[in-house]
Amino acid sequence: MGVLNVTPDSFSDGGHWLDVHLAVAHGLAMVEAGADLVDVGGESTRPGAQRVAPDEELSRVMPVIEGLLERGVVVSIDTMWAATARAAVEAGAVIVNDVSGGLADPAMLETVARLGTPYVAMHWRGHSDTMQELSDYDDVVSEVVSELAERRQAAIDAGIDPRALVLDPGLGFAKEPSHNWALLRQFDRLLALGHPVLVGASRKRFLGELLAEGGVPRAMSGRDVATDAVTALAAAAGAWCVRVHDVAGSRDAVRVAAAWLRG
């Protein structure tokens, strides 16, 4: 899953793809590099980011989605707003990727159920401006698994087909670096929930801190190789999909992991 943020303030590529033509070209380049689908988002979820109203989000994402669909690209919509999910799917997007797992907009789960599209529900404890204050866990893996199970049940109760439900542990969302590593290390417990699992580690802060030198985290531009390593390990562990900025490296990592497992 290639990341395409049409936002001015995303943590890695904010402001890079505000022009519709550049955004569509970047999406096409990710497909050429091996992306199976392009995840288009119009609201930053980096720590400290402020909410974006649905109308503003729609004005950002819909021209890009339409441009990609016209060129045959498989598109998912990254949104916490039911109205945006509905418009994107009605235009042709095939997956709704909701980092709030249906908690940010009470209408989301029922909307997705009516649309009949696959749904990615991420582990989430609060919006970006407060989420780092919510990273208190006694046992992060047990608590994330339990809270994801609650979101799974809420989705099913709303009418979403359990066969169309994907779960995401939400690396970096209300989590310290050690929490992210614990979740990756015990990936089998996420898979035991019985649904495909999406991993979104690309260029995140916990990788920058791992690669720090002299107490200075590795710059965003230097985190892709570490992202590729996570991709290889996640693929070998049974992840359904990885959400990444640098598609080519992770595509190679997936191939290595698949060959390793076949071997």
UniProtKB/TrEMBL annotation:
Any one Pfam family match given in the protein's UniProt record, by short name: Pterin_bind
InterPro entries to which the protein is assigned, alphabetical: DHP_synth-like, DHP_synth_dom, Dihydropteroate_synth-like_sf, Pterin-binding_dom
GO cellular component, one term: cytosol
GO MF assignments: dihydropteroate synthase activity; metal ion binding
Cofactors named for this entry: Mg(2+)
Keyword Metal-binding assigned: yes
Positions in coiled-coil regions: none
Keywords, in A-Z order: Folate biosynthesis, Magnesium, Metal-binding, Transferase
Record domain Pterin-binding: where: 1-255
EC number from the UniProt entry: 2.5.1.15
First-level EC class: transferase
Catalytic activity entry: (7,8-dihydropterin-6-yl)methyl diphosphate + 4-aminobenzoate = 7,8-dihydropteroate + diphosphate
Gene3D superfamilies given in the database record: Dihydropteroate synthase-like (3.20.20.20)
Recorded metabolic or biological pathway in which this protein acts: Cofactor biosynthesis; tetrahydrofolate biosynthesis; 7,8-dihydrofolate from 2-amino-4-hydroxy-6-hydroxymethyl-7,8-dihydropteridine diphosphate and 4-aminobenzoate: step 1/2
GO biological process: folic acid biosynthetic process; tetrahydrofolate biosynthetic process
PANTHER family in alphabetical order: FOLATE SYNTHESIS PROTEINS, FOLIC ACID SYNTHESIS PROTEIN FOL1
Name of the protein this chain belongs to: dihydropteroate synthase
